[in-house]
Amino acid sequence: xxxxxxxxxxxxxxxxxxxxxxxxxxxxxxxxxxxxxxxxxxxxxxxxxxxxxxxxxxxxxxxxxxxxxxxxxxxxxxxxxxxxxxxxxxxxxxxxxxxxxxxxxxxxxxxxxxxxxxxxxxxxxxxxxxxxxxxxxxxxxxxxxxxxxxxxxxxxxxxxxxxxxxxxxxxxxxxxxxxxxxxxxxxxxxxxxxxxxxxxxxxxxxxxxxxxxxxxxxxxxxxxxxxxxxxxxxxxxxxxxxxxxxxxxxxxxxxxxxxxxxxxx
Length: 265
What we know:
Blueprint: H1 3-22, H2 33-36, H3 52-80, H4 83-96, H5 98-107, H6 111-126, H7 150-156, E1 164-167, E2 171-174, H8 175-187, H9 200-226, H10 232-246
Antiparallel strand pairs: 1-2
């Protein structure tokens, strides 16, 4: 194995280790390419950014990692792994994150969506072969709701988003969303402290596979926000914050206010 391959492998290991420490955001749906192609997301948002010099430095570091480490790995992954396998793994990890969505909806008092999430989990786990197929999508009334996270619940109870922060490797966040990441891990079935998987190597492997499998979509979203942007930092911040705000629902609102749209061609 040559030095270049070792460098990429080391970078991926470092990336996955960092993600396993702070937690990836909910199933890569929080900021999608579909969101970023929404014309409204190119408006300027107002959010406190007292750490802007630090954030810009971290943004530049992340940009280097994304383009020089993650992008080659993502390209190699998409060439080797067939599309049906990619989709199946994405479905599998989304199904595993059912407890996060369930708890968030229950805490917000949205028991109808919590019921739908529960029924979807049962159907996808059984008829969907462990979640690799979205069998529930074919059942009327069990269409996939917009994902809710612990950060969504915090926002529903009136917690402000706080200030903007860029997390090394992970990317854009706010203080509320960063707390939400920790909350997601608390109810995640493969993260401490309440994991059902005792083997740490298995837990790290799950994080790594999930992130690498999601990396093509994450990079598409990132490049959509930064390509040809006058200020890529501000462009990503605007897109992220507006997407984050769309996931916050007032308590008692039964219908999610975020609709997953088909990609624009």
